[in-house]
Amino acid sequence: MRAAVLQEIGQDKLEVLDDVEAVGFGPGKVRIRVRATGLCHSDLSAMSGVLPQPAPFVPGHEGAGEILEVGDGVTHLKAGDRVVVCWLPACGACPACKRGQTELCLAGFMNAGTPNFRRPGGDVFGFAGTGTFAEEVVVDAGCAVPIPQDVPFDIAALIGCGVTTGLGAALNTADVEAGSSVAVIGCGGVGISAIQGARLKGAAEIVAVDPVASRRESALRFGATKAVSPDELGDAKQQVTAGEGFDYVFEVVGKSATARTAYDNTRRGGTLVVVGAGAMDDFLQLNMFELFFDEKRILPSMYGGGDVLRSYERTIALWRAGRIDLEGLITHRVPLTEINEALDQMRTGTALRTCIEI
Fold it and tell me: Does the predicted TM-score (pTM) go above 0.90?
């Protein structure tokens, strides 16, 4: 079986190998033929070591495909079903799930420490317990979410992570108020999805902030009312909010420097939503006086901050109704053999989302 493998953390290139085997199939498991997968910035973060992930590993967690085989005890799926790969499944039994905070369930993270691939040289892990840069993957049945037949694999793949994360940050975590002012810092696939979510909620002003001109242009097509470079954010704050600051600022980069910028550009009493996944040794510094005096809400948003299965259904409904544009997020398409080209497109910011067709 063909898969793209990172041999050591810190390497910037993947090896596309033909001697990889998907392992672990048995009771409660499913085997999926991956048809399409998106490249998410979290994959790059895992490759670089920003996000913890044992190696060697197969990156990829934003995928879709069809069920090849189901293990004993799996009753809600059958061979031939179209599915989205959910990298953060809910167990339904832990305290977080019982409280209704299924996005905080840790069951999926436990899978990340169990190899689900093998090569002649030894075990290979799958990123976030999945590993969709492969022709096949074996995962817990809860990681395979059935979707209607009319949802194309490439669209379904985006729903598996980036779109759910960005839309959910605006719809669930922030619950953006109609008529409000919004700034989104970082306008890749997740940031653009946050922009679409803010537009859906009726935000009056949506300022997209990104250093890449092509991404700023894209943001305007997806609903931003203004698009600026990071150096121009101060001027935009003055023009849009008379210097007070934005009602909502979304940080979609995952770095303390941009989180601090987001905080500084949030109005007193406003809301900072942290969407980007950052490193454990990157610390955001706030002094105790400003934290008290400004009364700004700081809301982290994990995977869209809501029930994942309901979020998938909502996204499909919005897409069908033409309320959100998912096709437009896919700016590049490459086969798995050209995965390193996709990595370059992500690093340079030339792509919103690259679809890897497998």
Answer: yes
